[in-house]
Every structure is written in C-alpha cells, then in structure tokens.
User: Fold these one by one.
Assistant:
Number 1:
Amino acid sequence: MDTALPRDSAELTYRDAAEADVPALVALIESAYRGESSRAGWTSEADILGGQRTDPQGVREVITAPGSRLMIVERDGEPVACCQLEHRGDAAYFGMFAVRPDLQGAGLGRRIIAEAERSARETWGVAEMHMTVISVREDLIAWYERRGYRRTGRMTPFPYGDERFGIPRRDDLAFELLVKDLA
C-alpha cells in the first residue's frame, strides 16, 4: 500500500511509454515545470524560463531512441509522473523527470528515482546515474544531493536562442552534471 500519496492508497505502476502516451506526457511535463499550473508544486521553472519545456517531437524522440526509455508512473491508470532513462556506456542518464504538481512533496519523487536507479542498474548493469540540472536551481540540486547525487562542477551552456528548451528570463543559466554511484 502506498501511504505517501494523498487522497487514496492506490498502488503505483511503472511501464515504458508508447507513442499513444505522447500527448499525456507532454501535458504532464509542461504542468510540472512551466506556466501557472507548475506553481502548485515546488519544481516550477516558471520564474527562470518561459515558453515550453518539451513538445510532442521531443517526447517521441525519447520514446523511440535506441537505448532510451521513458518510464511512466501511473496510479489508477492515470499518469502521475515520468522520467527518461538513457543508456550511455557505463552510466545511465536520468532526465525529463516530472511529477504532477499537486502530488509533489509527498515522497513520490523519492520513490520514482529509486525505481529508476534500480531499473537502470538491473537492465544495463551501469555503475553511475548522470543528470543535468539548471545550476541556479539550488533547491532542486539540494533535493538530489539528499538522494546521493553529487555536484561535479562540470557545466554545459544553456541553449540560448533555441526555444525548444524554453525562453530564458535570466542570462546566467547553465546545466550542471550531477552523478550518483549505483554500485
């Protein structure tokens, strides 16, 4: 039984996304990061980025790319979260992580990232999980550090001018690589 979720005790189910899931996944990811709906949770990027977080093509590419999975987390058949897992040699990349804003802060993210790590370790035999986080997102980075991730100081420039990644509201954005040992 899942006691960490509000309103009911339904079990979570995990599965790989399919083409038919693309519209629901785009809506879920957008709701967790952009616009007013994202402010119901704590992962909103609305103050640092406008525009879109993803689009159907971007989600479809994650679903269909070799060595990539987009894991959907459902409760009662409804998507409540998702995350990308991509096999990259000795590591897996964790991205496109979204939890429905009204369910954030109840322990769901902690459970999903643990399942993603377990799945990557068992499926691909990887020793590390990698992710990139916008470096000014100190609260989010701190959350990942409490889950065992460490900052590397390795930065990648934010793709200014490419609106597929959003419209920056600041000029100091970059992605920092975070790493966790899974062995």
Number 2:
Amino acid sequence: MSDGTAVAGPDGALRCPWALSTPDYVTYHDEEWGRPVHGDDALFERLSLEAFQSGLSWITILRRREGFRAAFAGFEIAKVATFTDADKDRLLADAGIIRNRAKIEATMANARALAEWTPGDLDDLIWSHAPAPAARPAPETLADVPAVTPESTALSKALKKRGLRFVGPTTAYALMQACGLVDDHLQACVARSAP
C-alpha cells in the first residue's frame, strides 16, 4: 500500500502511485497525462471524456476511449453539432461507450454551443486559466494534489457562462491536469521531467 508518494514501477522508475494499477494507466500516465493539449476538437474530446468520467473511475473511460471516438465522430465539433435525436438513440444503444442520457445530451449540446464559437476560442479560453508554472510547488504526495482550485472554479464558470454543461470545478480541474495546464505528476515521478 502506497503512502501517496511515488512508487517504483516494473521498470524501476518512480511514478505517481495511481499509474501502476494497470498497464493501460502506465501508458496513459507516461505518454499523455499532463502533456499540453491544444486544438478545439482535441480539447472538446478531453472535456467530453472528463464529463463522462464523473462518478466513475478514469480507467472505465480510458478503456472505452476508442469506442467514444467512433461513436462521437472523432469528437469533431462540427460533426457532433449536427447529431440528431436518431444519433442520440444510437449512442444510448452503443455498448462501446457509457450510455448515460444526461452526459450524451450534454456532449451533443456542448458541440452545438461550441460550433457557434470562433475557431480557437475554446483553446484560448481553457489555456487562459492555466496558472503560472511556479504558482505552487510540485506535489510530494497524492495528498498535495487538489481536486479543485481557484483556476478550475473560474474555468468552470467561464465555460458555463458560454453555454457548456457538465463542466463543474472538479471536472475542469481534471481537464487541466490531463491537458497539461498544471503538472500534478509527483516531484519524484519520472514523467514530471519528461519532454
């Protein structure tokens, strides 16, 4: 049992303890989590997946990510914005995703809202809430990693003000972590210093 500090993985490298529960997590942790993500469609995908994750473990979403991508037209905002009630019915019957009506409807509504934005606005809005890298020290243990920050609360409010749903402060912070706005890899984690 970890005390929340970095733990040696199968290769001997220290990692955030959550990353070692499955090989899928190791790959996601080492290659994606905390790396900067830009582009409206890419950020729409991450925002949508974080919303679907609400109340579930991330591994549940990660293992269905390709199913989500297929079901939601690669998370291309312009395509998802055209989804109809027939698409909603198709999604509700798709075993490759999480079949939560409210989350499916929110994803479709968010795409319709985002389709009205100027290209680049989502990227600009999200990244405008990134704190300065030196704003807080690198976490030593998992207990040092917050679930919500003033920046994620402000991002949540800004997204909601622009018409997006399922974007509470906790979801906004998970997005900030996943997309590299903050670096919550533990101080001793091998991925913290990765390019």
